[in-house]
């Protein structure tokens, strides 16, 4: 009986070593994390976009009151994206949440009214000029591209925004293509 136990006791550590040597590739390399801020008027599609990037259903999203944070996993990095609510009475507080950001996503509803687009442009210009954001990479997403009234990415570019690190892209959260950045 004690012989059997002894054999088992010596066998277990050896088999574990074999298992590690043969199968265990070690922990995956740590992915760098970056802190981003995501802004844009209410209804532009910030929550839907982040839900889709997290492989969650973008349908039935709840309107964001205040702000929310999502960790968006990519193959080589994790983006900790802070979405700031876009309502009139909240936008004036956006700048309080800019500190520590390493990049900015500005989401536009490219099918919105001229008035809303003008409001979005003013907010975009303020963000671009803010001392804590003005040197950061900036991605402007012209969302709602699936709608017939949507302005094209080129038309949105003609909104006359200038900065060194601007990147424009079009997307429609409910289009079937994968979002490409
Ligand atoms: N057709 C269409 N609807 C969208 C798109 N993105 C968001 N929506 C809808 O717009 C509404 C507001 O979206 P939400 O993500 O809450 O906007 P947020 O206020 O910027 O976070 C929701 O009803 C979404 O389903 C899009 O690309 N196309
Ligand atoms: Mg939201």
TrEMBL record:
<comment type="similarity">
    <text>Belongs to the small GTPase superfamily. Arf family.</text>
</comment>
<keyword id="KW-0547">Nucleotide-binding</keyword>
<feature type="binding site">
    <location>
        <position position="47"/>
    </location>
    <ligand>
        <name>Mg(2+)</name>
    </ligand>
</feature>
<keyword id="KW-0479">Metal-binding</keyword>
<protein>
    <recommendedName>
        <fullName>ADP-ribosylation factor-like protein 15</fullName>
    </recommendedName>
</protein>
<feature type="binding site">
    <location>
        <position position="64"/>
    </location>
    <ligand>
        <name>Mg(2+)</name>
    </ligand>
</feature>
<feature type="binding site">
    <location>
        <position position="86"/>
    </location>
    <ligand>
        <name>GTP</name>
    </ligand>
</feature>
<keyword id="KW-0342">GTP-binding</keyword>
<feature type="binding site">
    <location>
        <begin position="143"/>
        <end position="146"/>
    </location>
    <ligand>
        <name>GTP</name>
    </ligand>
</feature>
<feature type="binding site">
    <location>
        <begin position="40"/>
        <end position="47"/>
    </location>
    <ligand>
        <name>GTP</name>
    </ligand>
</feature>
<keyword id="KW-0460">Magnesium</keyword>
<dbReference type="InterPro" id="IPR006689">
    <property type="entry name" value="Small_GTPase_ARF/SAR"/>
</dbReference>
<dbReference type="Pfam" id="PF00025">
    <property type="entry name" value="Arf"/>
</dbReference>
<dbReference type="InterPro" id="IPR042292">
    <property type="entry name" value="ARL15"/>
</dbReference>
<dbReference type="GO" id="GO:0003924">
    <property type="term" value="F:GTPase activity"/>
</dbReference>
<dbReference type="GO" id="GO:0046872">
    <property type="term" value="F:metal ion binding"/>
</dbReference>
<dbReference type="InterPro" id="IPR027417">
    <property type="entry name" value="P-loop_NTPase"/>
</dbReference>
<dbReference type="GO" id="GO:0005525">
    <property type="term" value="F:GTP binding"/>
</dbReference>
């Amino acid at each position: 009986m004690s012989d059997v136990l002894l054999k088992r006791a010596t066998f277990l550590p050896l088999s574990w070593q074999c298992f590690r040597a043969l199968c265990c590739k070690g922990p995956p390399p740590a992915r760098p994390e970056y802190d981003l801020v995501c802004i844009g008027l209410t209804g532009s599609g910030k929550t839907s976009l982040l839900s889709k990037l997290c492989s969650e259903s973008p349908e039935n999203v709840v309107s964001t009151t205040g702000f929310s944070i999502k960790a968006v996993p990519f193959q080589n990095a994790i983006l900790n994206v802070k979405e700031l609510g876009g309502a009139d009475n909240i936008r004036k507080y956006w700048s309080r949440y800019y500190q520590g950001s390493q990049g900015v996503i500005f989401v536009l509803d490219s099918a919105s009214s001229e008035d809303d687009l003008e409001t979005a442009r003013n907010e975009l210009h303020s963000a671009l000029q803010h001392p804590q954001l003005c040197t950061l990479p900036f991605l402007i997403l012209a969302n709602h591209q699936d709608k017939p009234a949507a302005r094209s990415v080129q038309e949105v570019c003609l909104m006359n925004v200038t900065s060194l690190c601007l990147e424009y892209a079009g997307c429609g959260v409910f289009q079937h293509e994968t979002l490409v950045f």
